[in-house]
Prior knowledge:
By secondary structure, this protein is mainly alpha-helical. It contains six helices and no strands. The chain has helices at 2-88, 95-122, 124-148, 153-169, 176-184, 190-222. 16% of the residues are buried.
Amino acid sequence: MMPFTAANDAAQSTFVRRVDERFTARREAWATEQEAGREAERLAATMRLVKAARFNAAERLERKATVSLFTQSTVALYFVGLAVWQAVYAGQIDEATNRLMTFIQLVSSVFTLILGLLEALNDYKMKAHHLHNCGLAVSELAQELRIARPTDAVHVQDFRRRYNEMMKACPVNHSRIDYLFAKLDGTSDRAGFAGVYARYIVDVYGLYALFLAVPPLLWWWLT
């Protein structure tokens, strides 16, 4: 009876050990799936934020391109009008004022040329195009991630790799204003959103508003 009892105890011990190993493996697999799910959620949240920031940047640059073109055209019109006014009223303008206006026209012509070259180098339209396409690509990848709902680390890492490749492929990056706009949009932080919106207005319209305001002030001072 003793050998039989010892063999039975050994078999029971082996069975219990195997069951325990299986439960341990299942717990580890479940924990791994949970961690992969959390990583996928964090990646999806990052994609949504970056997508919104890219679209915000594209819209901001498109507005800057429009305002820039309008400003250059208006400033050129200002100084053409000044030249016409000087020619029409040449007999009624004293010599000192006439020389001053001629000097202003020469300086403004050079200034307008330099402004046009600088704005052309910025190439807001092309930058906006790249950012918009990047936002669309990230949006598509985020939707694919939401549908796939990966539960293993390898699959999540594959999505992260594809996301990083999209970021590297885009030659332009969004600014901090675009990121903060995307982060605060829809939140209850009204003060923070108002501050970011004020910075947005200054970034898009501030410099061009100054360019548009200076020529009328000069005109008022001369007349």
